[in-house]
Amino acid sequence: MKKALVLGGSSDIGSAIVIALANYEVVWTYCNTTRQENPGKGIFCDLRDMEQVKNLLAGMKDIDLMVTAAMPFMPFDNLDFEGYLAIRPFLDAHVYAITSAKTVMARGGRIINMLGQSVEHGFSGCAFNAGAFAFLHNLGKSINSKEGREGRLSVCDFLLGPVETRIWNGYPEEKADFLAKAGKFISPQEVAKTVLEYAGMQLLPGECILNAYH
Known about the structure:
Oligomer: single chain
Structural class: alpha/beta
CATH topology: Rossmann fold
CATH architecture: 3-Layer(aba) Sandwich
CATH superfamily: NAD(P)-binding Rossmann-like Domain
Strand content: 15-25%
Number of domains: 1
Number of strands: 7
Strand order of the largest sheet: 3-2-1-4-5-6-7
């Protein structure tokens, strides 16, 4: 049975992905929410603590699929340096996990990152999320251009439109505004279904643009 690691497996998107990976031996991380209904093995890991991240990865071996769904939504003023300091530990954790692939993943392993479409056009009021996503997106492209061509590792970034998650409950005006324009949100289950499809492709694309209205 293939092995999968899902960072952020207790998030709405991450939990749907864990459930969808029924044919994998899944390890998933949680911090604020345990998601006891998830199959597989849940491990507590606060991604803001690099020692916890290192200990998590040190216990991994021969992973076939890594999915990252652990970047929090952090609204800050675009010119507030504190926003950068808040997102930086999560970015560091993602970069560490991805660069650890050389020791924890099987040859030909795949990484699928849950990012936002803000990698291309920014995100007003959430600039540091957009910046972190853009960094990871370019990191993935660089890995594909070298390790991908060598058959060692491939990365696919999901560039997501708004997904129906609990976070929107705190931003009802923004949710109503988006619904008025687009009509619907992507469901976490739709994201998970697409992750499963992409994970099984013979050739993993470098990105997947997923919108509710496509």
